[in-house]
Amino acid sequence: MKDFIRFCIVGAFGFTVNAAMLTFWLKLVGLPLILASLISAEGAFLCTFILHKRWTYTAPVTKTGRQLLVEFHGSAWLGMLLSTLLIYVLVRAGLHFLVALASASVIVLFWNFIWTKFYIWRPSVE
C-alpha cells in the first residue's frame, strides 16, 4: 500500500509537470495537440522516473539505472500513447484539454503502477 500511495504522489507531481508543459506547448508555442501532448508526457515521464527510482521503490533491485530507465520508458510508451489518444478524442468531443488530460491520467494510472511495481522495480530475490 505504501508503494501505491507514493506512486500516486509522484504521479500527481508528474501530472502537474505534464499539465504545465502541455499548456506551454499549446498556448505559448502553438504546437498541435498530439505533438504537445507527447512532448509533455515525455517530460513528465522523466521527472517521475527519477522520483520513483529515488523514493517510491526503495527495495534493492539487481537492474542498473540504465536498465530501469529503458524498461520504464518502454512500458510507459503504451500508457503515453493511450493517454495521447484519449486526450485527442476527449478534446474533439468538447472537453477542455486539462480535463481530458486528467481523465486520461486516471485511466492509465493502474497500467503504469502494475508495470512499475511488479515488473520494472521487482525486488531482487537472493
What does this structure look like?
The protein is mostly helical and 126 residues long. It contains four helices and no strands. The longest helix is centred in the first third of the chain and has 28 residues, at 2-29. It is elongated, with a radius of gyration of 15 Å. The model has no long low-confidence stretch (mean pLDDT 90).
Terminal CA distance reads: 23 Å
Helix content: over 70%
- State the total count of DSSP E strands: 0
- Reading the helices and strands in chain order gives HHHH
Radius of gyration, whole Å: 15 Å
Low-pLDDT parts are none
Write the layout of secondary structure elements.
Blueprint: H1 2-29, H2 33-56, H3 65-92, H4 97-120
Helix pairs in contact: 1-2, 1-4, 2-3, 3-4
Short description:
Helices cover about 85% and strands about 0% of the residues. By secondary structure, the protein is mainly alpha-helical. Helix 1 (about 1-30) packs antiparallel against helix 4 (about 95-120), helix 2 packs antiparallel against helix 3 (about 65-90) and helix 3 (about 65-90) packs antiparallel against helix 4.
